[in-house]
Amino acid sequence: MTTMQESPTAAGSGANASQNFKAKVRDEAGTSPDRVSAVVTAVLQGVHAAIKEHNVTYPEFQAAKAWLMEVGEVGEWPLFMDVFVEHVIEEVAAQSQRGTLGTIEGPYYLPDQVRLEASCELPHRPEEEGAPLVLSGQVRDLDGTPLAGAEVDIWHADADGYYSGFAPDLPAGNLRGVVVTDAEGRFAIRTVQPAPYQIPTDGPTGKLIEAAGWHPWRPAHLHLMVRADGYRTITTQLYFAGGDWLDSDVAEATKPELILDPVDDGTGTRRTSYDFELEPA
Ligand code: MBD
Ligand code: FE
Prior knowledge:
The chain is of the alpha/beta class and about 280 residues long. The protein has one domain (about 10-280): Protocatechuate 3,4-Dioxygenase, subunit A (Sandwich). It contains six helices and 14 strands. The chain has a six-stranded mixed sheet, with no helix packed on it. Strands 2, 3, 6, 12, 13 and 14 form a six-stranded mixed sheet that branches. It is globular, with a radius of gyration of 20 Å. The N and C termini lie far apart (about 45 Å). Mean pLDDT is about 95; it is low at about 1-5. The structure holds 3-methylcatechol and fe (iii) ion.
C-alpha cells in the first residue's frame, strides 16, 4: 500500500465515501409514483435534449456507459453527486430556511466523533502541519437568545487536503469533533488551517474533469453541522478570505456570507469568529 501520495487517490477517498454512505442511508425519500415519474421524466428529457443538441455519437454513448459503470465500481457516486449536484439541492432547501446560511455537506462527514468542551482543541497528530487556527463564536436562536449545550460538529481536511476516515494513514477522528457550547452558547475551537481540496485525479470523477478541461479544486474550508434540541440543524462550511479557488469552487458551494478573515494574534495563531443562528425546528 502506498503511504505518501503526491496527489489524492481515488482509492483513498471515493470508495470509503460509498461504504460510509450506504451504511447510513436507506430508502428514506418515500416519494410518490407521480413525483418519481415527474422528476425522472424531466431528468431523462434533459439527457435526450443534450444528445440531440450535440449530436452525441454511438462511441460517445458507449464511453458514457463505461464511465458510469466505473463511477459505481470504484465507489465515487457520493463524490460525484456532492460535487456536481448537491449545491442545487441545497439551493432549493435554502429557500424555506432562516438563520445562518447553509451549504453542501459533501461526502466526508462521519457521525459520532469525540465530544469536546466549549473551549477545545480538535484531535490531531503530534506533528500536525498547518498554521494554528482558532474559530470562536456563539450559537443563538433567531431572537438572539444564546443556546447552551448546542453541538458544533466540525470536520475538515488537513494541510495536505486529506480527510481522516477517507485517506490511508490518517488516524481515525483526526481533525473531527463535536464541540458543546457553554452556558452562554459560546465555543472556541483550536485547530490548524486546512488546505484546498483536490478531487482525486486518478478516479473517474477526476478523469471526467480532466477530459472536460475543468479544474479539480475546492477552496480550503471547514465543515460544520450545528444542532440544538428543538432547532433545525444547520449544515454549512466556512471559507477563508483571499484563498485559492474561492471564486471557482468545482462544487459551487461558496457563499460570500460564509467567508472568514482570520487575523494573526502576534504569536502565529490565526483567530476568527463566526456566530450561528438556528431557527426553530
Ligand atoms: C469535499 O471536501 C467537499 O467538501 C465536497 C463538497 C465534495 C468533495 C470534497
Ligand atoms: Fe470538504
